[in-house]
Amino acid sequence: MAELAQVLRHMLPVEDPMSLVDASTGDDAAVYLLSADRALVVTTDFFTPVVDRAFDFGRIAAANALSDVYAMGGRPLFALNLLSFPRKLLGEGLAEEIIRGSSAICREADIPVLGGHSIDDPEPKFGMVAVGEVDPDRIVRLFGALPGDLLVLTKAVGTGVISTALKAGVVDETVLASAVDSMVTLNSTAAEAMVAHGVRSGTDVTGYGLLGHLRNLVRASGLSAEVMAGAVPLLPGAIALVQAGHVPRGTTRNLTDLAEDVAWTTEISEPVRTLLADSQTSGGLLMAVPPDRIDTLMADLRSSGTAAAVIGKLTEGRVGYMSVV
Prior knowledge:
By secondary structure, this protein is an alpha+beta fold. It has 2 domains: 2-137, CATH 3.30.1330.10; 140-324, Phosphoribosyl-aminoimidazole Synthetase, Chain A, domain 2 (Alpha-Beta Complex). The chain contains 11 helices and 13 strands. The protein has helices at residues 2-8, 54-71, 94-108, 159-167, 173-184, 188-196, 209-221, 238-243, 249-258, 270-276, 294-303, and strands at residues 19-21, 30-35, 38-47, 75-85, 113-120, 125-134, 150-153, 201-204, 224-227, 262-264, 285-289, 309-315, 322-324. The strands form 2 sheets. A 7-stranded mixed β-sheet has the order 8-11-7-12-9-13-10, with helices on both faces. Strands 1-2-3-6-4-5 form a 6-stranded mixed β-sheet, with helices on one face. Helix 3 (94-108) links the parallel strand 4 (75-85) and strand 5 (113-120).
């Protein structure tokens, strides 16, 4: 994260008064005001394959790109494809399967894919530009959480570990299927409940892992956090794969980066510590929910089939600090 900040310091400051959210805050997407009651939410994301099946890769990449719109409390309007692919392999049908998978997710999100861009690249990569809209008065941001707010997570963690084990050819098909199902699940229903219940602070869980994204939220809100490790949902098989040594480099970097901002109780095992920092793809939403709204929010999430869990709370104290108990 320090290296990223070093690069971003060269971006010109944003002076346009219509710009409501830009890169300076670390939020999930840019927001640009169109009118008193309407703003654009724009984001982009792309990466190398995390699974073997091209169709599933396309689905995961699309769900992941749309997630940032949902995380801001927005509704997607349309998307554009971003494809890097070796020209010599275009006849193999893999690129078509990637696009077919992404299109399937966009149909599920009820949005069109209006075009995109492709380049010849020896290493395949795919992602999307996602454009949505949001009520300017209901944008969900990193800041704005309050002491006593409860932390709600809407997906289990462990996709990074499982994807890494897949590359080594040691993942059980059932374990892989659970991870893929999680990654292709849109955060749309969770986002609708989040906005309906007046949540103003939240994010989604991706590359920085659960604790990395939580740190962003508590730093922006000037708070600390307490996380109940036993309450955090883990994907099936993830613990065993960590114990077998299948840990992504990104997850290792996350653990190193978090070292000075996390206090672990001695009961928290090394595999659980690893998974709480595991670099995720298309993870769930992480919300800071006022206590008086938690029961109705959780009831709505569960009735819609979202496997949400209350995993901790926000507290006053050293800004950006997290204790895991």
